[in-house]
């Protein structure tokens, strides 16, 4: 059996990283069109860098929570009985990895990586980024950007994601409002393949009626309970 899990900002909310569309979410305080598009970066790179520098600093002081740990436990538990977890996240944080998950597909990129638009190199990055910072690989300044996917850009690893969705036996969306495509369309894709679908979220999302089952509550409680249920079967 393969379980396809898609996580969103709700899984990291209790680690102190803000969600986007909840009351007081990031997009109620910041305009995504001015901070999370290639055009914004071309026009105002300092503002875009400042936004991601702030988020990177928040991430470095955050810790994984019980939901991240439960998903790492699920990966091991499934492998022990010959089953598989495909963990795909829209989150750019590294909390799944820090909780112990071995294989995480970051479809929206990773905040703790930088990419040089001049030479194409992608590298681990924990410090602040700025237009004056030279690329450690090609030495040119001005080309480094956060290795994240902005609105209008293609999400990463879509071929592997499509294959995994086709092969999965169960699709579970955790802590995502289902507002941003293509991830928002995974549930209908799963249904087209005849796969059962579950939603785990603080409250029913706008897509809730597309799921066969829902479990509602804080991820730190709902995810460990669901993992226990799966591993007992
Ligand atoms: P959203 O902020 O849109 O949705 C977060 C979801 O998590 C909501 O449905 C909340 O109800 C739920 N939630 C909040 N706290 C929770 C908790 N403690 N436990 C469980 N659920 C909780 O975030 P995403 O769906 O991840 O993309 O957003 C998708 C994409 O939109 C992001 O990857 C980002 C953003 O714009 C880019 O920046 C390209």
Explain what the structure shows.
This protein starts with a strand and ends with a helix. It has helices at 26-29, 32-35, 38-43, 45-60, 66-80, 95-99, 158-167, 186-192, 219-232, and strands spanning 2-7, 84-89, 104-106, 109-116, 122-124, 144-148, 170-174, 196-201, 213-216. It has two domains: 1-15 and 64-108 and 155-233, 3-Layer(aba) Sandwich (Rossmann fold); 18-61 and 109-148, 2-Layer Sandwich (SIR2/SIRT2 'Small Domain'). It has a six-stranded parallel β-sheet with strand order 3-2-1-7-8-9, with helices on both faces. Strands 5-4-6 form a three-stranded antiparallel β-sheet. The model has no long low-confidence stretch (mean pLDDT 97). The chain is α/β, with parallel strands linked by helices. Helix 5 (66-80) packs parallel to helix 9 (219-232). The chain has nine helices and nine strands. The structure holds 2'-O-acetyl adenosine-5-diphosphoribose. 2'-O-acetyl adenosine-5-diphosphoribose binds next to loops.
Shape descriptor: globular
Sheet with the most strands?
6 strands, parallel
Q: Count of helical segments?
A: 9
Assembly category: single chain
H and E order: EHHHHHEHEEEEHEHEEH
CATH topology title of the largest domain: Rossmann fold
Relative helix content: 25-40%
CATH architecture of the largest domain: 3-Layer(aba) Sandwich
- Ligand names: 2'-O-acetyl adenosine-5-diphosphoribose
* Mean model confidence by pLDDT: 97
Counted up, domains total: 2
* CATH hierarchy, class of the largest domain: Alpha Beta
How many β-strand stretches? 9
Q: End-to-end span in angstroms?
A: 12 Å
Radius of gyration: 18 Å
Any idea what the CATH superfamily of the largest domain is called? TPP-binding domain
Structural class: alpha/beta
């Amino acid at each position: 059996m393969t379980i396809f899990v898609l996580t969103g900002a709700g899984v990291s909310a209790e680690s102190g990283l803000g969600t986007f569309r909840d009351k007081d979410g990031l997009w109620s305080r910041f305009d995504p069109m001015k901070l999370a598009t290639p055009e914004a970066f071309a026009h105002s790179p300092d503002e875009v860098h400042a936004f991601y520098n702030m988020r990177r600093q928040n991430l470095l002081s955050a810790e994984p929570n019980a939901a991240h740990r439960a998903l790492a436990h699920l990966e091991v538990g499934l492998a022990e009985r010959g089953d598989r977890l495909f963990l795909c996240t829209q989150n750019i944080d590294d909390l799944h990895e820090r909780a112990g998950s071995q294989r995480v597909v970051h479809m929206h990129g990773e905040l703790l990586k930088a990419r040089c638009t001049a030479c194409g190199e992608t590298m681990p990055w924990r410090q602040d980024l700025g237009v004056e910072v030279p690329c450690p690989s090609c030495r040119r300044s001005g080309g480094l950007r956060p290795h994240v996917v902005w609105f209008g850009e293609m999400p990463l690893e879509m071929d592997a994601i499509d294959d995994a969705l086709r092969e999965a036996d169960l699709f579970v969306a955790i802590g995502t409002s289902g507002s941003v495509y293509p991830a928002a369309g995974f549930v209908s894709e799963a249904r087209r393949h005849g796969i059962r679908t579950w939603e785990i979220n603080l409250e029913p999302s706008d897509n809730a009626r597309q799921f066969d089952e829902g479990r509602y509550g804080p991820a730190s409680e709902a995810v460990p309970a669901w993992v226990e249920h799966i591993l007992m079967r």
